[in-house]
């Protein structure tokens, strides 16, 4: 019996992945360094703190890891505060989960602060019992412990939790953790979509299709 939903944010609830495009190089350029064109792909599966550590070590930055993370955050913060839209149909899905008394939490590879700002601006924050990040739970989304930690904090069993995600690597991890996974299409996962459809328990082109399956 399903009792809770774990929603990813970027690329799932929020149409925000373009905001993160090339953000590593945009930060490096702000401090006078030109990074490689493939920096985005190299950091694709990293949390914000992991990306900051990678950049500090790779480019021998004088800034601390926290300063790098803050610099990246500053670049994208305005978009979360003012402009990133919600995916079409996502509000109704969240409202339906709430009406059915499911626990609702968010799990982001970014920062809790940014997630909170976006959800508050979109008038969705009050639906969520908690917002988790890879940093706060202590694991990234390639580690099954990340989802197991969230499920435990919700006082649920893994079979009682649905994970809604767009990224192939996170979908694989959530499935391996034992969660029921609903995949949502995003332009960024187009190249992985066929594989995602073969792994996720359910897959949807949009939240509009998902609404009747909550």
Automatic annotation (TrEMBL):
Xref: InterPro entries: HAD-like_hydrolase_sf, HAD-like_sf, HAD_2, HAD_sf, PGP-like_dom2
GO BP annotations, alphabetical order: DNA repair
Gene3D superfamilies for the chain: HAD superfamily/HAD-like, Putative phosphatase, domain 2
GO molecular function: phosphoglycolate phosphatase activity
Transmembrane segments: none
Protein name, per record: HAD-superfamily hydrolase
Species of the source: Coprobacillus cateniformis
Lineage: Bacteria, Bacillati, Bacillota, Erysipelotrichia, Erysipelotrichales
């Amino acid at each position: 019996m399903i009792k809770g939903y774990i929603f990813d944010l970027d690329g799932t609830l929020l149409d925000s992945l373009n905001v993160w495009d090339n953000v590593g190089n945009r930060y490096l350029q702000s401090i006078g360094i030109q990074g490689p064109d493939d920096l985005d792909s190299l950091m694709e599966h990293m949390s914000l703190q992991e990306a900051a550590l990678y950049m500090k070590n790779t480019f021998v930055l004088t800034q601390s890891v926290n300063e790098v993370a803050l610099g990246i955050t500053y670049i994208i913060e305005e978009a979360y505060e003012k402009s990133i839209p919600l995916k079409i149909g996502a509000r109704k899905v969240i409202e339906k989960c709430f009406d059915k008394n499911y626990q609702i939490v968010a799990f982001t590879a970014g920062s809790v602060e940014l997630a909170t700002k976006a959800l508050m601006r979109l008038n969705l924050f009050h639906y969520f019992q908690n917002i988790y990040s890879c940093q706060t739970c202590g694991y990234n989304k390639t580690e099954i412990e990340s989802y197991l930690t969230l499920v435990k904090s919700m006082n649920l069993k893994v079979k009682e939790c649905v994970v809604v995600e767009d990224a192939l690597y996170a979908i694989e991890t959530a499935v391996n953790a034992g969660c029921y996974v609903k995949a949502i299409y995003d332009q960024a996962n187009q190249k992985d979509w066929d594989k995602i459809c073969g792994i996720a328990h359910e897959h949807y082109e949009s939240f509009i299709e998902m609404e009747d399956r909550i």
